[in-house]
Design a protein that fits this description.
Layout: H1 3-10, E1 16-17, H2 23-33, E2 37-41, E3 47-52, H3 53-63, H4 89-99, E4 103-108, E5 111-117, H5 118-142
Parallel strand pairs: 1-2
Antiparallel strand pairs: 2-3, 4-5
Length: about 140
């Protein structure tokens, strides 16, 4: 399975935020959407960074409640790991594990084209395993 198939199933909508937005705004967006990360984008769709629940919690641990007034750009991850629509599920698992990230924005021609979370990867891998199991059961039953 490749990323384009995951996006076809889940859609390519991505929750984004402006780098000048406050961490309070980011936390509100995350909570309302029930997601773990927002892609920080420029008006033209360029990926500038990513901010996660973890980033916000770490900022609060350092600056207490004042952290919520800080701009997203002060805590976002700037060197964002991305993937393409042609990347395999296996390569996503390797990248997420190696970088210890739970979200990979999908880039197409340098612009944001979607996002894949660890939950998406697990769901699609489990679906693959179930299909393989069903084929093996059918094979054994027919032989």
């Amino acid at each position: 399975m490749i990323v384009s198939q995951i996006l076809k199933a889940k859609g390519s909508d991505v929750a984004t935020i402006d780098p000048k937005a406050s961490l309070a705004e980011a936390a509100t967006k995350l909570a309302r959407a029930r997601i773990g990360a927002l892609v920080v984008t420029a008006p033209d769709g360029d990926i500038l960074g990513i901010v996660s629940e973890r980033d916000i919690v770490q900022a609060i641990a350092v600056s207490r409640a004042h952290a919520l007034d800080h701009a997203v750009e002060t805590v976002m991850t700037r060197n964002v790991a991305t993937c393409t629509t042609a990347d395999s599920l296996e390569s996503l698992m390797r990248e997420m594990t190696a970088r210890r990230v739970r979200h990979l924005p999908v880039a197409r021609d340098g612009k944001l084209a979607g996002i894949v979370s660890i939950g998406d990867v697990v769901k699609h891998r489990l679906d693959e395993l179930e299909r393989e199991r069903a084929m093996l059961v059918d094979y054994v039953a027919s032989g």
